[in-house]
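Researcher: We're teaching a course module on how sequence relates to structure. For the next exercise, students receive a sequence and then see the predicted structure as tokens, so they can try to spot secondary structure elements on their own. Here is the exercise chain.
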Amino acid sequence: MPSPGPRTSSCPVGQNVPFGSDDARFLLWQPEFASDPYSYYARMRRVNRSMVPVELSPGVPATLVVDYRTAVQILNDPEHFPADPRTWQSTLPEDCPILPLVGYRPVPARTTGQEHNRLREVHTAAMRGVDLLAMHSHIEKLAIPLINRFCGDGHADLIQQYSFPLSFAACNVLLGCPPYLGDRIAEGMAKIFENVDAATGNQIVGAALMELLELKRSQPADDAVTRMLQHPAALSDEEILHQINSQYGAGIEIQQTLIANCLLRILSHGSVGDSLLGGSISTRDALDEVLFTDPPMANFLLTYPRQPILIDEVWLPANQPVVISIAACNNDPRVQSNDRRGNRSHLSWGLGNHSCPAQTVAYMIAQDAIDQLLDALPEMELDFPSGAPVWRPGPFHRSMTELPVRFSPSPPLNF
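Model: And here is the predicted structure for the students to work with:
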């Protein structure tokens, strides 16, 4: 199997590359990178650059930022580093596998200027209106039935049986999506994510979301979709559908991965688990530790320079992706601290005008989900078949394929 990097690349897609055509590229799309990214980040640093050439997909070059201060500079300069990918995207084949995740759509993370400001105002207002106290109660009501389904078995996969269904259900609550529509959305998304009849999956999701919009028009409620429909920005139906899709994408994939990665750290680092159960650190501290070390989106926050620009003595080409390695920058030796309790300087929620407007809600959902599970099954132990987690390949996420645990069977919880 070929090595994930570095290698010399002659890319057929984008001809403008930083560092020169003879520079080696690290291949972020190969499984070897996913299995041990931090060894590659260390190799990148030995190149003695704050940025390194990478491939996001075969034949798709980019620049990866591995220096914290450089990342902050870029993220705080949307005028020179806009997030709109359309010019770059026009150079890619339509079937490029990363386009569904990073291609243009009218959402805050993929727009710039007035378009971005208008859409972000709607997202921010939708999240600001969330009743956190009510959401806390919802998470308890969602978590306990899920735990009761496996607590008597003595074993579980905490991703498929807990973090994923809980995150999906929580997202339905935030958006005001009733169960009968949520089930259809789940069916369609499963087809899309598993690449099994994705076209039908898109049709199922689209039809269900349109039905959700009509429901909220006729029966407005205290939920994010209603707030988006009623916002003075007056988004079109198509624009609102894109916002809902992005909410589901982040609210399911990123949320469930954050919960799972935090549970992995608690269960695999005895000092973290003992301190958490002993009360010397909080679940919030454990979440922030994971957001430093294993953030759900390890390499993301893509921008595209408007014109060639010199950063750290390196010329970056115009309209080519500059990707922030959130994981590498969070652990930059030049800014790393030994004690991170109360430290939330990580880049895992973004920065500047592309910071995540839902981070308060996401923290609360993850914290409540973890607390409910640990209260119910405090003696859980990891049970990986190979003794270690298997990480899903991909240039952007940091996500396990499964999180198997074992424990002494216990009776169902009352609620």
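Model: If you want an answer key for the exercise: Residues 237-268 form the longest helix (32 residues). The chain is about 50% helix and 10% strand.
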